[in-house]
Design a protein that fits this description.
alpha/beta, 14 helices, 40% helix, disordered N terminus
């Protein structure tokens, strides 16, 4: 029930957070969506052990964390966090509050599937510390949901939003475009339904064929039509046009927010803030190192039962950090600051960036706004590919 402060300027929205973010990975789902390659299990047999292990990791990570421990954002992702009861989620929340100082105005988000959000659960979540819902609608049409093997139907989607908007002001919904068989008319209807519910944040993703999922096999068998990139681009362009007219700011490639409702958690990530990831497969970043937990539930639980952190650590080179800054920066309205590149990485990196960017500037895919490199409207859909052209691979 605590929306972000609407008085924050758009440009400041990405640089106000001095503490860390925390991501909690809940590795359980009712069923496997055809397109999803995130780490999860459809078996709930180890649920109690997993919750205990998550709480143990929260405690252990706090004991070894250096510097500022203030938690500015908490994000429950997965998997599907709402397969857990509110009491189970609260147990994890309690462990965070017992081991870390949490900002009074912390943004606390939980991802949810529509079929999990009963009226009772929504009311209980609204009474907890959770102040933001991210609901995986994906589509309001049953034919799309069946194709993706979602666990909910259109009726569930409409009902849960009707209930959720009574209790929560800060709601984000996910939609997927580029779905085979989705006409432009149906895509526009999806967007309009989201607008009609007056949600202040919408995340939209192109359907992607990931190798270790059911989707490529179903396409190969001819059970699902191949994904059409031209259709996806058409859907994307329509999406941007409609939402911008409705007052949404396209502040990141896949994210649209009303002023004051940008995701604090995701914005902190795109701005290079530090974060700690809890749970199997979760990643962490402290400015100098990146670490990631093992993506096996049983091995994760066994390690934490022995008070061991089941993670690998990578020391980041200057080039690693530069490449990541370029990749995330170009996806956002804040772009890539040439001054920051020169200050943090050196003149060689700045000169290389400008040299590589020139051909994209000439093609009107990038432009320079004083000291900041940004993608044009034409270049938005291609921003990840453009960023890869600006990466540097031969400097330490």
């Amino acid at each position: 029930m605590n929306p972000l402060n609407n008085s924050k300027s758009l440009k400041d929205n990405g640089s106000l957070y001095e503490g860390r973010g925390m991501y909690i990975h809940i590795p359980f789902c009712k069923q496997a969506c055809h397109y999803c390659d995130f780490h999860f299990s459809t078996s709930m047999k180890k649920k109690e052990e997993m919750i205990a292990a998550l709480c143990t990791e929260i405690k252990l990570r706090s004991a070894i964390m250096e510097g500022n421990k203030i938690i500015e954002t908490i994000y429950f992702g997965g998997g599907t966090p709402t397969v857990l009861s509110v009491d189970e989620l609260q147990a994890i929340m309690n462990a965070i509050y017992e081991n870390y100082p949490v900002a009074d105005d912390a943004e606390i988000t939980i991802e949810a599937n529509p079929d999990d959000l009963t009226e009772e659960k929504i009311v209980l979540l609204a009474k907890s510390q959770v102040n933001r819902l991210s609901i995986g609608i994906q589509s309001f049409f049953d034919e799309d949901l069946k194709l993706m093997n979602r666990s909910h139907n259109s009726k569930n989607a409409l009902r849960c939003l009707s209930l959720a908007t009574r209790e929560f002001e800060n709601i984000s919904i996910d939609l997927i475009y580029g779905i085979p068989g989705m006409s432009l008319k149906r895509w526009k209807q999806n967007i309009q339904l989201a607008i009609d519910f007056d949600v202040p944040h919408i995340s939209c993703y192109a359907l992607t064929v990931e190798p270790n999922t059911a989707l490529p096999k179903l396409i190969e068998k001819g059970e699902i039509a191949p994904v059409n990139d031209d259709l996806a681009q058409q859907h994307f362009e329509v999406l941007v046009e409609i939402l911008e007219k409705e007052g949404f700011v396209h502040y990141e490639l896949s994210n649209f927010g009303k002023p004051g409702y940008f995701s604090k958690n995701n914005t902190a990530y795109w701005q290079g803030k530090q974060y700690v990831g809890i749970g199997p497969s979760a990643h962490s970043y402290n400015g100098k190192q990146r670490s990631w937990n093992i993506n096996n539930n049983t091995k994760y639980i066994n390690a934490l039962q022995q008070n061991k952190l089941p993670r690998e650590i990578e020391d980041l080179t200057t080039t690693d950090t530069y490449n990541e800054y370029v990749m995330t920066g170009l996806r956002t309205i804040w772009g890539v600051s040439l001054q920051k590149v020169e200050k943090d990485f050196g003149t060689t990196y700045k000169e290389y960036l400008l040299k590589q960017a020139q051909k994209h500037i000439d093609e009107h895919l990038l432009f320079l706004d004083t000291d900041t490199l940004l993608v044009t409207k034409k270049g938005k859909f291609l921003s990840d590919g453009i960023a890869s052209d600006l990466f540097l691979v031969n400097l330490a």
